[in-house]
Amino acid sequence: MASRGLHDADPLDPSVLLLQDRHRSHFVETDQLQEVLRPRQQMRAFLSLWRMDPRIRPYVIRAGFYGIYRLGHISIDWPLITCLVERWRPETHTFHVPVGEMTITLQDVAIILGLRIDGPAVTGTCMLNVPQLCGELLGVTPPADAVRGLTISIRWLCQQLSTPGPDADGVALERSARGFLLALIGCFLFPDKKGVHVHLCFLPLLRDLTQTSTYSWGGAVLAHTYRELCRASLDHRCGISGCISLIQLWSWERLHVGRPDFGRSAPYPAPPFAHALHDDDVDAVVAEGMDDGLPAEPVVQPEPEAEAEPEPALPLGCRWRVPLTRVLNPSGVLLLYRDQLDAQTSDQVLWQPYVGEVVEQLPDICLADQEIWRTMSPLICFDTVEWHRPERVLRQFGLHQEIPPDCSYDQHLHRVDARGRHQRDWATYHSPYIALWETRSARVIHSPPSVGMMDFQDPYMQWYRRITRRFLTPRLHRDDMRFHTTADSMNVMIAAMVDIVDRSRFATAGEHR
User: Fold this and answer.
1) With contact defined as beta carbons under 8 Å apart, do 89 and 80 qualify?
2) How far is Cα 139 from Cα 129, in angstroms, rounded to an integer?
């Protein structure tokens, strides 16, 4: 058996990680890439501009997005996101950490964000008549300077729809709710590169808000998140968009690296209004771009009214909307995060965090679609199609992990996006994948329950060590005045011990012949 040592940078078996030469980890190992990615988020700016009118609250609840609103803004730990992107593999849609593969699954999206994962795919046509569509569903027609292609300024939506009049009827309130939901979608779930515009392809899906709640928004968010992780992990990318909060909250729920501590006695926090949020420098800088050339008119907010309806149960991600402390776990240092992941052990991973008291207070939608949590199906969001690979992370479902089957990397599918394709009907273009999604219940992976921690010499771990790069931290000059990683020495020690065990087994086998 070939053992891995400190100088074995690339996989011994290159049959899985086909993009290693373009991957971020390759440039990290050669010390060519030390910059921290800059996640792009606008949720803080959105909440400061548009405090939800209590009268549209029932519409937001009906559409299934109230949990997203209550989750609100999460200050992003940029080095943590960068460290995770360095571990993300586009070939498998998983994070390759030292103890095996892990990924964000449909289960994580449902429980953390409270979005529906079952239902029709989020797709449709981009052949839109913008003035007609906005006039019908929003009640206002945007000026030319508020529209770019098929995207619309979020600030303009705030200025036009955030303050329905005191005598607004049901039609006006529903239009205001559509504008609020469209801006929420653009700021939190599917932000563009700058986070100041939102694509109007989502607006037709908000026509009937009761029908809106039936779509697989969780599957669409996961498809978009996978695509953004894939893009950020290749070719010296310096930024990342998508639902960054989902990535960070997933990491906090499952990994020890950069995880803050908080009071468990109050899992459901107060509403995430802007005045109670923590500052986030990158969001504050990018928020200035939300003006986007429009007049900087003050947004007048109505006085909050007493809410008669009881507060709905909130998704698990909302429990992180409390004051957090990092006294016991230092944060914000990329080199430290890399070293902690390089030195990771199985007992530092929460393979099944959603058990017991954690899930007792969750809304029904978080646990409603468990039968497809492990579906091996394409995830769809208009132009984006990405495969869900639960067969590679069965330990996250409490099941025994075998060596997974080969998964082909479809380079053409990764290249398909909406750029230059503004007049395309994506429901027709991706109809073969939509048909596969519609039969998602027929492709659920099964496996026996796992028992205890996986052994170092388990067949899966032996295979995994051959096909991956477990250690990313580059060797450093031993400068007395800088941080010294511990993973270097630990890796050498492990490689030496494995080599000793292998030699002893060979010698013992020779004596018995």
Assistant:
1) no
2) 14
- The pLDDT tens digits for 3-16 are 444 445 668 899 99
**Token pair of 436, please?**
């596969």
Which residue, among 263, 292, 20, 256, has the nearest Cα to 154 in the 3D structure? Answer: 292
CA 125 to chain centre: 25
Which pair of structure tokens corresponds to residue 240? 């990342």
Q: What is the DSSP-derived secondary structure letter of residue 468?
A: S
3-state SS class at 234: strand
* pLDDT average, residue stretch 126-146: 96
User: Which pLDDT tens digit goes with each residue over 278-302?
Assistant: 333 333 333 334 444 444 434 444 4
User: Which residues, including other chains, have CB under 8 Å from residue 430's CB and lie 6 or more apart?
Assistant: 123, 380, 383, 385
Give the torsion sign (CA, 260, 262, 267, 268): negative
Q: Is the dihedral of CA 452, 96, 87, 229 positive or negative?
A: negative
The contacts of residue 445 (CB under 8 Å, 6+ apart) are 374, 375, 376, 390, 391, 394
Query: How large is the average pLDDT for residues 118-126?
Result: 96
Helices (H), 368-419: 411-415
DSSP 8-state secondary structure symbol assigned to residue 70 = H
Name the residue with tokens 């997203």.
68
pTM over 0.70? The answer is yes
472: left (phi over 0), alpha (psi -120 to 50) or beta: alpha
- Find out whether 460 and 402 touch, Cβ atoms under 8 Å: yes
Cα(114)–Cα(363) distance, integer angstroms: 8
State how far the alpha carbon of 12 is from the alpha carbons of 30, 87, 97, 495, in Å. Answer: 18, 17, 16, 14
Residue 155: both structure tokens together:
């600030």
Q: Are the CB atoms for 465 and 98 separated by under 8 Å?
A: no
Alpha-carbon distance values, 459 to 5, 369, 403, 492 (Å): 19, 32, 7, 22
For residue range 472-503, list pLDDT tens digits in order. 876 654 445 455 556 555 555 666 666 676 66
